[in-house]
Amino acid sequence: TQTCRAERLGMKHETGHRVGGSSSRPGTMNERGYARELLSDLGFRPSKARGQNFLVHPHTAEKIAACMPRVCSTAVEIGAGLGDLTQKLLARAGVVAAVEIDRRLAQVLRQRFNTEPEMRFRLIEGDALKIDWEHWLAQTPLPRVLFGNLPYSISAPLIEKCFQNARLFTEAVLCLQAEVADRLTSAGGRSMGPRRPRSCLRG
Fold first, then answer.
1. Cβ distance 71 to 133 under 8 Å?
2. Which residues contact 202 (CB under 8 A, 6 or more apart)?
3. How far apart are CA 155 and CA 176, in angstroms?
4. Is 196 in contact with 5 (CB distance < 8 Å)?
5. Does the bond joining 141 to the residue before it have cis omega, within 30 degrees of 0?
6. Could you report the average pLDDT of every consecutive run of 10 residues in the chain (203 residues)?
7. Given CA atoms 68, 144, 187, 129 in this order, what sign does their dihedral have?
8. Neighbouring residues of 189: CB distance < 8 A, sequence distance ≥ 6
C-alpha cells in the first residue's frame, strides 16, 4: 500500500512570488523581473488551460530539490518551465530527465542548459499525460525520484498518471495546491477548507 505525506516547507511567502510560470537566474535584476522580461521577449502568455505557473523564488526551488534523498541517480521533472527547479536538481542528481509540453519553453530549456552533457540533461517535448513514461525513462539510471510543480487545473490526472507509473520511482516529491494535498491525505478525500498556498506532497 502506498502512502503519502503532506509537508509544509515554509513556502508561504515564496509561493506568493509567481509569474504565471517559473524562473530566476543568478545575477539578474530580480527573479520576478527576469521571468517577466523573458516571457515578454518570447511573446509568451501562460496558458490557463495548462495551468502554467512558474516558480520565481530560488529558495522555493531549493527547498523542493532538498527533498531529494541522498541516493538519486535520476531526477524526473514534470513540466520544467523556465528551468529553475531543473537547475537545482542538476546540482544534486546525476541525470535530470524532464518533459515540457510547450515548444517555446523547451527551447528556453535547451538554451539554458546547453553546456550540460547530453546524457546529464535529457529533455523531451510532450504531454506528460499522454507519453509512455516507461519508454521515456527506459535509458535513465536507477534509482529515480519524481519531481513536479503540478498545475492546479490538471493535478488530479497528473497524480493518477504518477500512481500508474509508481513502479518506475523510489519516491515522488510533488508541489501542488494545498487543498489538493488535503484531499489526497484526508479521510474520505474531501477538501479541508479554502484554497491556500502550495504544499509539498511526498509519497
1. no
2. 4, 5, 6, 7, 67, 171, 172, 173, 174
3. 7
4. no
5. no
6. 37 35 39 63 64 71 93 96 93 97 92 90 96 97 94 87 95 85 64 42 55
7. positive
8. 183
- Cell numbers standing for residue 58: 530560488
Find where cell 513536479 sits.
148
C-alpha 146/C-alpha 168 separation (Å) is 9
* Whole-prediction pTM: 0.74
- Cα–Cα distances in angstroms (integers) from residue 108 to residues 49, 114, 174, in the given order: 21, 10, 23
In whole angstroms, give the CA distance from residue 5 to residue 81.
25
pLDDT, one tens digit per residue, over 138-149 is 999 999 999 998
What's the CA gap between 57 and 121, in Å, rounded?
22
| 20-33 per-position pLDDT tens digit | 433 333 334 455 55
Q: How far is the C-alpha of 150 from the C-alpha of 163, rounded, in Å? A: 14
Q: Count other Cβ atoms within 10 Å, centred on residue 144.
A: 20
